[in-house]
Amino acid sequence: MAQADAESPVVLPDDPAGGPEVQVDYPGYRSTRWRVAERPLVTLPEEFHRLDGPVFGADAVGELDNDLTRQHPGEPIGERIIVTGRVLDEDGRPIAGTLVEIWQANAGGRYRHEVDQHPAPLDPNFSGAGRCLTDADGRYHFTTIKPGSYPWGNHDNAWRPQHIHFSVFGRQFTQRLVTQMYFPGDPLMEYDPIATSVRDPKARSLLVARFDLDTTRPEWALGYQWNIVLGRGGSGTTPLETGS
Amino acid sequence: MTLPRTPSQTVGPFYSIGLSRDPQNELADPADPAAIRLTGILFDGQGAPIPDGMVELWDGVGRRWARSGTDGEGRFSFVVTKPEARPGEAPRFDVLVFARGLLKHELTRVYFPDETGANAADPVLAALDEDGRATLVAEAEDGVLRFDIRMQGDRHTVFFAH
Questions:
Q1: For residue B144, what are the β-bridge partners?
Q2: Backbone angles phi, psi at A196, to 5 degrees
Q3: Which residues from A are below 8 Å from B12, CB to CB?
Q4: Do A34 and B104 touch (CB under 8 A)?
Q5: What is the ipTM score, two decimals?
Q6: What's the angle, vertex CA A195, arms to CA B7 and CA A12, rounded to 5?
Q7: What CA–CA distance (Å, rounded) separates A109 from A106?
Q8: What backbone torsions phi and psi does residue B39 show, to the nearest 5 degrees?
Q9: Is A111 a catalytic residue?
Q10: Per-residue pLDDT for chain B (162 aa), expressed as one digit of tens each?
Q11: Kind and range of the H or E element at B92?
């Protein structure tokens, strides 16, 4: 297991070998050191992963849950944006009716969370949380404001690129995905050990939304498209074995 | 056609804004006589509790799920009923662990201590050594099931590839 310490470089060189997998013990992200699960993991045969996930009813979300700009009496400060895309499996099939949850910092780079002490103002009109169910085409749709960058304590002068956190369920529990969506052209990406923990630059680019003029609503909001592709479910294909 | 999968990223320290807006840790009415309280502490590799973690329980047979954030002492807690077992297996929940520092969530399982016979016959438990097996079976403690999760170290919980 790689050791994270004060001498570790923050960002390691690109390495396409990992594909879509994050390097879970990426040393530049210091918090991995004492938290990532002891490796090697135990591999289960694929049949043990074939379990269906929950079914969500329409009551799982409220009417305004996917519009983060309309959850308070006033409008939040910031650049209004539309973020939409489809949740698909690796075969390109839409995953309908699944729960998508997002959370993010406000336009000043501050989360509405007691632990966040970044000296940027809170916005009384912005909570920073949204959720929706995907439609029959697997499409989700959010209206929000563009989150700000913010400093964090990982290393000297560390700043997170602008991002929105996404949580997606999928059909099976092995499709469960929590990830982050970034914005095109963000100069902080290459300095960020969380983004670069995806060592393959092609895979990393899948975390970046695409600006889309057709999604942009004239006189109202910039539009971004970002598809989310979940695995088929079940990555273990070898017989049950204990890695140690 | 095979589309490339979207990579995972950490939930970070502020996930509760989005994922813990509503209490979602009860799969049963606490007043139900069949209700089981399941609680534990999430520990890091230095033996310190993880106060900004999140644990999800998944019942693949009943297609139910629940989630609990960890508190300042690293404690998560659920009210559940025992899931049905699949044929030839012991009843269990799949357990997903999320936290700042985890770039991808980790997968483990929790089994029930009063299912001695079914646990002995469970193919996944049977394939583990005794120490590993013990990390997946909750302990009955004053009417509560106690299930601690240790990410690393000599007594680390068994985690599964996914």
A1: B37, B141
A2: -80, -5
A3: 165, 180
A4: no
A5: 0.96
A6: 110
A7: 5
A8: -145, 160
A9: yes
A10: 799 999 999 999 999 999 987 889 999 999 999 999 999 999 999 999 999 999 999 998 999 999 999 999 999 999 999 999 999 999 999 999 999 999 999 999 999 999 999 999 999 999 999 999 999 999 999 889 999 999 999 999 999 999
A11: strand B92-99
